[in-house]
Amino acid sequence: MNIFKPTWMIEKIYNLSAKDLNQKGITTVLTDLDNTLIAWNNPDGTPELRQWIEDLKQENIRVIVVSNNNHARVKKAVEGFGLEFDSRALKPLTVGINRVVRKNKLDKNSTIMVGDQLITDMAAANLAGVRGVLVKPLIETDAWNTKFNRFLEFFVKRSLKKKYPELVWHKELQ
Ligand SMILES: [Mg+2]
To answer: How far from 81 is each of 51, 57, 146, 156, CA to CA, in Å?
Structure first.
């Protein structure tokens, strides 16, 4: 199996409805922070995002942020949402995901990892043995490291598309 291959491709994280997650037996959503949950120019998130977090909470579906960023930065970013988080996750390594799985005694079969990058988020998900959900980045950024990552992403995505033509964007889980 290709380690970059997402299980699902969903346009936005808040299109993952509690109903669809329940139907698939998913009880925990691990999510990347930057460009997946929030955009750098909108740290408070959108009303849709806040509603999504609320909806999942109502259904007892946990949302845990798994970010490569440092503790202070992630804490500050997620505080307003009341979400649990793991920082310095070292994606594409499995360090962060496995730390969260161990700490919370999660079942990997009922856990998914959502992120906007194939080479970090999806690779970490596949290597850790949880299903990955790729989302479109909320916004393009100018940071050099992001630009470099996008460059690699372009080639990885192109080869994935060639190999798995069935991989297309969906609005919702199916
Ligand atoms: Mg990201």
So the answer is: 10, 11, 25, 33
